[in-house]
Amino acid sequence: MPDTIFKMNNVSFRFPDDQSPTLSSISFAIERGERVAISGPSGSGKSTLLYLLNRLYPANCDGIVNGEIHIFGKAADSYAPGEINHRVATVFQDPDSQFCMPTVEEELAFTLENLNTPASEMEERIRHVLDITGLSHLRHVSIQTLSGGMKQRVATACALVMNPEVLLLDEPISHLDPYTAKEFILWLDQLQKKFHLTIVAVEHRLDYWGTFFDREIKVTSDGRISEDAIFKPHETLRYPLRLNSILDPTVLIATGLSVNVKGNTLLHPLSMTAKKGECIVIAGPNGSGKSTLVKAICGIYKKEAVKFASDPCGYVLQSPEFLFLTSTVLDELAFGGTSSQQELNDLIESLRLTDIKEHNPFAVSHGQKRRVAIGAMLADKRNVLFLDEPTSGQDEAALLELFRLIDSRLDQGDTVFIVTHDMEFAAAVADSVVLLKDGRMTGKFISERVWQDVELLASHNLLAPKGVTRRAESFA
């Protein structure tokens, strides 16, 4: 007989302030040892569904639930607060949201202390989980000095240290470079087989996962299940061919740019230029200094080393909510005051934000937050834009629209820098690629040459993008 871990029967969920439900008439069951992917458009309620499985909702948001939810054969609402969480561990989409302590070791110890683990057992369990996750060298490192990808791995280690039966993952590879993402999936595959874990993951980039999952539960934009079926490997999204729009005038010159913080060199001296209408992708392994470079160019670290020949730049960072200043999505986009009402309406529609334009930007999904932040910078008409991981949390329709918006701005002569691990998006949009490794700039390359250099890509933890043949051939 199958051992049912989760069972939902005609479940609907609504936040207290919303008129319509986020999830409607959801029914499915997940058996012990299964690997299940939850997919669907950005903002469709996938993360909400995940939080119903770990009992974070409805108690932590005063949400309203109708229908039946059973976990390990018991009614979900019969569990005391926190009772289920040592058996069902969760890794959130934004790892920063679950850290409480300064160092990796202290975070792991804090997790065990909350489980009332005897002090005599804690040392061995911490050592063991750091060993199996390959994080032993980070044991005494401050979490906030780590890259987004490394934080994601630390968050996974904190989940595994509880010895759970179920692992819930919310877009676990969204902050990982392609090579590390493949390693993570392989490692997760081995871990699941060894410990017979049940794995449920919310994911957009299913093409990376190959045949990892057994089933796929597809959620529609109105919060319903459109399909619950055997998983089939996904094809990579193909983008239109973008024509080169680089103009001659140089808009940015960086000379001897470096970053040193408290005696630590985060970025070694480098020099580079950018031209009007140029799209520059910044790529490299997790922790190589990509976000540090963007912050340095924008003047957050060292403004005197960079000269702009245009207006100040616009910067969308990895955690977009740090940029929000208003209480609605519409007000956020209108805050700069440089776009007309018609331009704002067109931008909101193109970014698929119409249905949430009156929502608080802090309360929307992670993918929607990114689109709001990008929209705010586009509405402000900055001539030089820096986008840090803009594709994270985006479904295919949002990715295609983001491509079109960037392409349009480049045609107008704007310059766009993009930090990304999404090599397919990078190959579609980039004119040039800046490669970083260990805080050093390897070089700035014409993009088509990078995609054909397998050794260069591999040395920077990158994989050759699929579907780039057309552009490489046209360049040749």
Description:
With 476 residues, the chain is an alpha/beta fold. The chain is built from 14 helices and 19 strands. It has helices at 46-53, 104-114, 119-133, 148-160, 178-195, 290-297, 329-334, 341-350, 366-379, 396-411, 423-429, 447-451, 454-458, 469-475, and strands at residues 4-14, 23-31, 35-39, 64-71, 74-75, 88-91, 166-170, 198-202, 215-219, 225-230, 250-261, 264-275, 279-283, 306-308, 314-316, 384-388, 415-419, 432-437, 440-446.
Topology:
Blueprint: E1 4-14, E2 23-31, E3 35-39, H1 46-53, E4 64-71, E5 74-75, E6 88-91, H2 104-114, H3 119-133, H4 148-160, E7 166-170, H5 178-195, E8 198-202, E9 215-219, E10 225-230, E11 250-261, E12 264-275, E13 279-283, H6 290-297, E14 306-308, E15 314-316, H7 329-334, H8 341-350, H9 366-379, E16 384-388, H10 396-411, E17 415-419, H11 423-429, E18 432-437, E19 440-446, H12 447-451, H13 454-458, H14 469-475
Parallel strand pairs: 3-8, 3-9, 6-7, 7-8, 13-17, 13-18, 15-16, 16-17
Antiparallel strand pairs: 1-2, 1-4, 4-5, 9-10, 11-12, 11-14, 18-19
Helix pairs in contact: 2-3, 2-4
